[in-house]
Amino acid sequence: MASTSLLIKAALLATVTVTSGCGFQLRGAAPVSAALQPLSVQCVSNVPAQLCNAVTDQLALGGVTLADPAQASYRLRLTRFEQSRRASAITLQGAAAEYDLRQRVWVDLQSSSGLPLIAETELNASESYRYDEDQVLAKRREQQDIETALYQRLAQQVIFRLTPMTDARIKAIEARAQAQPPLETDEPQ
């Protein structure tokens, strides 16, 4: 009995050692490069506070230094948000039996000088849920829970978009922007 317990402990210790040594990480917020620090997060008025908070919470959890826009080297902007709900299944009586809840947010990343590092990008999340007319209050609560889960998914997508922004990549974008000739205008000089 004692040898079985000792064997289990040894196997567990070996598993932990191997997984930590190979770089295994639990699923969660992806690491954001230190090159993007300090970072400000700006949400326009129609972006739900819960979504904005989910993004800032995940950034803070990942060790990103957050700052006011005036002090930040980079600005992450959530520029637009849309949510829609549509019936995806109908009962024989013509009532909605299932709804599809969709959320979309548009984000971009700029340097403090206004140079776009990530052009405005649309991110999507959706979830379906059953609807029962006899349990309206419970279904409303379920919809709120799904909305919260979708905010978290969108926040994770935002973080994943920031992950490849290393110092080398930022410098390459800045060099490319400086190398481009100014746009010509059609106006005579």
UniProtKB/TrEMBL annotation:
What keywords are annotated for this sequence in UniProt? Answer: Cell outer membrane, Lipoprotein, Membrane, Palmitate, Signal
Cellular component annotations (GO), alphabetically ordered: cell outer membrane; transporter complex
Enumerate the Gene Ontology biological process terms.
Answer: Gram-negative-bacterium-type cell outer membrane assembly; lipopolysaccharide transport
- InterPro entries from the xrefs? LPS_assembly_LptE (IPR007485)
Instruction: Name the domain of life this protein comes from.
Output: Bacteria
What are this entry's molecular-function GO terms? Answer: lipopolysaccharide binding
Protein biosynthesis in keyword set: no
One Pfam family in the UniProt entry: LptE
Q: What does this protein do?
A: Together with LptD, is involved in the assembly of lipopolysaccharide (LPS) at the surface of the outer membrane. Required for the proper assembly of LptD. Binds LPS and may serve as the LPS recognition site at the outer membrane.
The similarity comment for this entry is: Belongs to the LptE lipoprotein family.
Quaternary structure (record): Component of the lipopolysaccharide transport and assembly complex. Interacts with LptD.
Provide the protein name: LPS-assembly lipoprotein LptE
Write down the species. Marinobacter zhejiangensis
Name of the gene: lptE
